[in-house]
Design brief:
Elements lengths: L2 H27 L1 H9 L3 H33 L2 H18 L10 H23 L2 H4 L5 H28 L14 H24 L10 H13 L1 H6 L2 H32 L3 H29 L1 H21 L3 H29 L5 H14 L3 H13 L2 H19 L6 H9 L1
Length: 427
């Protein structure tokens, strides 16, 4: 592989490192907690409105993702759309610096978070759809796994920088103070710089996708018209339809795990907030290692088999976690479970590419996003209902294991030999 291709692949993977800082530092660990405690003033109520805001942003993405993908595929401006989405993350994150710890900034904060989340999700769709432009077909799994692995490590690296320079020191770095939570608000600036800096190589080295000769107005018109026939085309691509159904179910299980993991650790095993933070960092690290190692497995045995192995690992470790009472054993098994999280996500991305035709990859990733968001409420609902019915979060965890098992069972019906056939039929 030439040096130019190595640079391109590294720049592509680095984008995952860049944008994961937003979901990790703002969406999960730091700013979300600051919002609930300091801006909203009530941890429980703040968590609720934060969750509704993220859900609303997800709804917007689910409604418009296939449209945006079809328009991008027809106009051939994936790089431009990615640039717009990335700029949205950067500017919205930077403006969070002005979200002072007062209830009058509640709406201001939520609007910015919603805008940044929409930018993050759309940027991910267009980014995923360029995988085939970077990696040779025989190395799709490898490059996808490398990118996903760097994403985990990038989010953790940004979190470490935030903790070491802004949150933990008695005197924060870069001239910020702790008065009026200035050091915490500066997290938004850190993420903005992080995303802009590490995403830049992608836009430098990534060649512009082929301009199909359509201006924006024509791309919108033809793209939407093309989308209207997507259902008919999908009927002839049975492997993709089955995969979208299967992945929606098992990804909902993963999303539910990410949502309740800390609550489960606190309730069932009595872990403190600081312990949960370290626990989450360890899980993210193990998921990154898993994505990196299984990147080669993906190319060797194929993404479908890699996802199935990952789901089997999740179910096996999940059952073991259900049966264990010891906190130390729970932590060890959870880290083992985390190793299989990254491969499932990374191999699913490369499988979308292999199930898509050359001219509809962004559209298919739009449907991939739609299928995931459309059932995103089911996992938390069944978890909560089961936990309530049996008065135990262990019962709730069973519903997550069932989602992984069911998704894997449906995925088995995607015949490996039908992948290429599906591409031909759908062209």
């Amino acid at each position: 592989m030439s040096m130019v291709n190595r640079k391109l692949i590294f720049a592509w993977c680095l984008y995952d490192w860049a944008n994961s800082s937003y979901s990790t530092v703002i969406g999960t660990f730091v700013f979300s907690v600051y919002f609930a405690h300091e801006i909203y003033g009530d941890p429980t109520g703040g968590s609720v409105v934060w969750g509704y805001t993220i859900a609303g942003a997800g709804l917007v993405v689910s409604l418009f993702a296939p449209f945006a993908g079809a328009i991008a595929d027809h106009g051939g401006h994936h790089k431009r759309w990615m640039g717009l989405a990335t700029a949205t993350i950067v500017f919205a994150s930077a403006l969070l610096f002005f979200a002072e710890p007062h209830e009058r900034f509640v709406v201001f904060s939520l609007i910015l978070v919603a805008v940044a989340t929409v930018g993050f999700e759309f940027g991910t769709i267009f980014y995923n759809s360029t995988l085939h432009l970077v990696a040779p077909r025989a190395q799709l799994g490898r490059v996808s796994g490398w990118g996903w692995s760097l994403g985990y490590f990038g989010g953790l690296a940004c979190l470490f920088v935030a903790l070491a320079t802004l949150i933990k020191p008695d005197i924060p770095w870069f001239g910020f103070s702790k008065q009026n939570a200035e050091n915490i608000r500066a997290i938004g600036l850190l993420v903005a710089v992080w995303v802009g800096l590490f995403a830049a190589p992608f836009f430098i080295y990534m060649p512009a996708t082929k301009n199909l000769g359509a201006g924006l107005a024509e791309a919108i018109y033809v793209g939407l018209r093309q989308l209207s026939s997507a259902a008919r085309r999908m009927k002839s691509n049975r492997p993709m339809v089955l995969f979208l159904v299967a992945s929606a179910i098992y990804r909902d299980g993963l999303a539910t795990l990410f949502t309740i993991g800390g609550l489960y650790a606190a309730d069932v095993h009595g872990m403190t907030i600081d312990q949960i933070m370290l626990f989450a960092i360890a899980l993210n690290f193990s998921a990154g290692i898993g994505a990196f190692i299984f990147a080669w497995v993906d190319d060797y045995i194929g993404p479908q088999q890699t996802v199935l192995i990952g789901l089997a690992g999740l179910v096996i470790f999940g059952i073991a976690i259900l049966c264990m009472e010891s906190r130390a054993t729970f932590i060890a098994l959870s880290i083992g479970l985390g190793i299989f999280v990254g491969p499932v996500q990374a191999a699913s991305r490369s499988l979308v590419v292999k199930l898509s035709t050359e001219d509809n990859k962004a559209e298919m990733f739009g449907f991939y996003a739609l299928s995931g968001k459309s059932v995103a409420f089911l996992g938390p609902f069944f978890y909560a209902a089961s936990t309530d019915a049996f008065d135990s979060q262990r019962a709730g965890l069973v519903t997550i294991l069932m989602a992984w098992a069911l998704g894997g069972l449906i995925l088995c019906f995607v015949r490996p030999g039908a992948i290429n056939a599906g591409n031909v039929v759908s062209q």
